[in-house]
């Protein structure tokens, strides 16, 4: 039987949330009152080595969220345009645009956006659809181990992994060669040049969630120029940044980073998540070698590399939605390919907040966008405001919450009460749907997706998953 934790939606006040954190032994700041003109409304400036100072109007950021709803050749569709138009009216000072593949075979799903000569105009139109003054970036990606450019996986990996190779069907043939990586560096730079043409202020050289460049960070065993020590494991990043500085001067570079990782989890008895394996584990970047603990020594060094490269904007996230989703997006209800939470999801939120606070404090030159707030639900802004005031993050990143309730920032900044019926309750349908080949959207709350024809298939997929995890 899986354990049931107290639901956040039943906590009636910020004080009750504070009490629950205290019960769990967690030190998370929670403000009692929101201040519409307080810390979340304050503008900030981040500085990039090439682009110089970029001003952001407030402390809310839309986090990148791919939608599994582009065309199969990487163009945006009406569904993508609808999502971006909702971000435009969110009031967020910064929009961190969704994962966009630098080449077709690097997509995580057959409907992911691709940035190329043929698609750049459609992607420029997305940028242009944002609100005046919103700063916007695009996340550039190769999905590596999780590449699925057609209906079956087509993994490409950095090194042989004892657990994950079996999960995705990867062997020696799937390893990227050094020559292939030299070519891939050029493709990231080509994509960055196009992103600048499309009007973005920055590109994110994505290093998170088990995708290729995140995996490279734990490539201790990879021989050659792209592996081994931290200098080798960041050779790819350094080469991409050098190329962007050369070919797209004035374009800022950011990184979204899984700032820590744990070993893969799997559904154990009663469907509750348990670690998949035991013993030493050296494949978690930001891990302490056990697979279950955190050690930020190398992460601090990596942030030092960012500073050396003139990168001024970082978003912290954690783990992977594929192999340890409870770490990456704490949820009460697991996605269909997941497991019941092995801990109160508030523990997962607090873990991301604590790591972000440590990194933000130690690297004052960086502007740090935190993640993992949506599980806080009605009290998201009460925690975000307290975190920003205390210097625990520069900005509050919003993922799932802006799918269900894109206007939350604008409501908070205007001092209006929350529209509680729109608050994300972490049903995970926006993850379950794409895991089952459907478009991603907030099916339980967003009226548009409530009426979407694919909802029938989603309900069937959820029933099957529920039976498996019972
Ligand atoms: C449907 C969906 C798609 C996502 N796609 C991306 C993505 O393209 N790039 C990325 O870095 N993170 C992606 N994420 C992770 C979010 O950016 C965010 O880190 C995560 O949802 C936790 O934040 P939250 O608690 O506010 O949801 C995605 C999350 C969801 C729910
Ligand atoms: S489907 Fe909606 S309610 Fe569920 S996690 Fe996603 S955004 Fe939140």
Provide structural commentary.
- It is a single chain.
- By secondary structure, the protein is an alpha/beta fold.
- The chain has helices spanning 14-23, 78-88, 120-128, 164-168, 178-197, 212-216, 230-233, 235-247, 297-308, 325-328, 345-362, 380-390, 400-404, 408-413, 429-435, 447-450, 455-468, and strands spanning 44-48, 52-56, 60-62, 94-101, 135-141, 202-205, 252-258, 265-267, 273-275, 313-317, 367-370, 395-398.
- The strands form 3 sheets. The chain has an 8-stranded parallel barrel with strand order 3-4-5-6-7-10-11-12, surrounded by 4 helices. Strands 1-2 form a two-stranded antiparallel sheet.
- Strand 4 (94-101), helix 3 (120-128) and strand 5 (135-141) form a beta-alpha-beta unit.
- The structure holds flavin mononucleotide and iron/sulfur cluster.
- Flavin mononucleotide (FMN) binds at residues 63-66, 98-99, 139, 208-209, 256, 317, 329, 371-375, 398-401, 430-431, 440.
């Amino acid at each position: 039987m899986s354990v049931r934790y107290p639901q956040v939606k039943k906590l009636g006040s910020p004080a009750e949330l504070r009490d629950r954190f205290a019960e769990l032994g967690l030190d998370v700041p929670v403000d009692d009152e929101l201040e519409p003109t307080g810390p979340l409304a304050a503008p900030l400036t981040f500085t990039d080595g090439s682009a110089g100072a970029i001003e952001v109007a407030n402390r809310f950021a839309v986090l990148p969220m791919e939608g599994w709803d582009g065309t199969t050749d990487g163009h945006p569709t009406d569904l993508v345009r609808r999502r971006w138009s909702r971000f435009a009216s969110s009031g967020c000072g910064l929009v961190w645009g969704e994962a966009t593949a630098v080449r077709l075979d690097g997509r995580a799903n057959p409907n992911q956006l691709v940035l190329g000569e043929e698609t750049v105009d459609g992607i420029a139109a997305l940028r242009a659809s944002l609100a005046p003054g919103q700063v916007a970036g695009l996340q550039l990606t190769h999905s590596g181990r999780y590449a699925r450019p057609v209906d079956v996986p087509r993994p490409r990996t950095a090194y042989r992994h004892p657990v994950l190779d079996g999960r995705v069907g990867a062997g020696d043939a799937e390893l990227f060669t050094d020559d292939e990586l030299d070519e891939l560096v050029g493709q990231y730079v080509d994509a960055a040049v196009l992103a600048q043409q499309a009007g973005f202020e920055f590109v994110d050289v994505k290093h998170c969630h088990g995708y290729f460049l995140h995996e490279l960070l734990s490539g201790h065993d990879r021989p050659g120029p792209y592996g081994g020590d931290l200098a080798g494991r960041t050779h790819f990043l350094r080469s991409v940044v050098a190329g962007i500085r050369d070919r797209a001067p004035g374009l800022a570079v950011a990184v979204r980073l899984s700032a820590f990782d744990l070993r893969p989890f799997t559904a154990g008895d009663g469907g509750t998540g348990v670690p998949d394996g035991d013993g030493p584990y050296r494949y978690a970047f930001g891990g302490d070698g056990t697979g279950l603990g955190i050690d930020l020594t190398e992460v601090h060094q990596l942030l030092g590399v960012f500073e050396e490269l003139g990168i001024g904007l970082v978003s912290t996230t954690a783990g992977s939605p594929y192999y340890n989703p409870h770490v990456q997006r704490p949820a009460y209800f697991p996605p269909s390919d997941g497991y019941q939470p092995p801990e109160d999801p508030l523990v997962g939120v607090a873990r991301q907040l604590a790591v972000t606070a440590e990194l933000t404090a130690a690297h004052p030159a960086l502007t740090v966008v935190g993640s993992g707030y949506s599980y806080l639900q009605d009290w998201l802004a009460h925690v975000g405001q307290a975190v920003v005031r205390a210097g625990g993050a520069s900005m509050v990143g919003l993922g799932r919450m802006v799918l269900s309730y894109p206007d939350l920032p604008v409501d908070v900044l205007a001092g209006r009460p929350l529209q509680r019926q729109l608050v994300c309750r972490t049903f995970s349908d926006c993850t379950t749907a794409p895991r089952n080949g459907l478009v991603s959207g907030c099916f339980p709350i967003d009226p548009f997706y409530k009426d979407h024809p694919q909802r029938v298939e989603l309900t069937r997929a959820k029933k099957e998953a529920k039976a498996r995890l019972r």
